[in-house]
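Case 286 in the screening queue. Each case pairs one protein sequence with one candidate compound; here the compound is S-adenosylmethionine. For every case the pipeline is the same: read the inputs, emit a complex structure as tokens, and attach any notable structural observations.

Predict complex for case 286.
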Amino acid sequence: MKTDDSEILNKNLNIEIELLLEALYRKHGYDFRNYGKAHIKRRVLHRLAASGFNFVSDLQHKLIYDDNFLKLLLDDLSITVTEMFRDPSFYRSVREEVFPILKTYPYFKIWHAGCATGQEVYSMAIMLKEEGLLDRAQIYATDFNQMALKKARDGIYPVDKIKEYTINFQKAGGKTSFSDYYTARYDSVILDQSLKKNIVFADHNLVTDGVFAEVNMVVCRNVLIYFNKELQDRVFELFEHSLVPGGYLCLGSKENLRFSSIFKKFDVENDKEKIYKKHYLSRSTV
Ligand SMILES: C[S@@+](CC[C@H](N)C(=O)[O-])C[C@H]1O[C@@H](n2cnc3c(N)ncnc32)[C@H](O)[C@@H]1O
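Case 286 output:
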């Protein structure tokens, strides 16, 4: 095929994908129009191959007339891969650098945005419990993927993941034994139900919904990498509005606040783990 032909095909494909996202937004209210193009293209082509259709336009028709197809497409577009104590050094830093401040508060709130199937939230709850802080915490765990949220609420995970989770827990500086926090049943483990006592799981879309609550700490890791710069800026503003003065924004090593418009309102607490602290006063107005 000549280069010109493949360029035209590629342009046509991009148009079809844009129209599919438009239909998804106008029919169902889910707005993926400002997600990274490469990510969306990969995921749509995956769905196209699995569906047996020839054209992305065929998916658009199915999306408009078949509600079951919505679930499939949403699952394709929202990557819910996660694990307990993922990137253990992040948890170690939170424990050593943020918890000492939280310990000075009688009560505090944490928002996990894009919590997927919940492993990140339970990891935080275990760490808070180890530090005697769980009873003082109100944790909000949100995602827009209903199937992921259901798994998060259940807190039941495949037993074959436990070895990996245990290693992560130890690397994260876990003080007790990870086996204290789950019960094995056949091929699953059920997490200690008392961990979710102070966790509220809720549906929240970072693109279309507003501030969820006023919190002392926002944790949002491995979510913004799928957004384009414009959308990242919108979500950063949402987080800035959600945080109390002196609150922490914890993004994890793959995201970066530095190039956003709100960077000037934060101090860098940990540059590797991307932990930021909101100024007590807006210094741009001082
Ligand atoms: C790769 S997972 C990250 C899970 C966890 N934070 C971690 O780091 O292990 C990304 C999650 O972001 C969620 N997500 C993507 N776009 C979202 C949006 N607009 N609003 C809320 N959640 C979103 C997906 O549903 C998915 O569960």
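Case 286 observations:
- Residues 78-82, 86, 114-116, 120, 143-145, 148, 205-207, 221-223 surround S-adenosylmethionine (CB under 6 Å).
- The mean pLDDT is 95.
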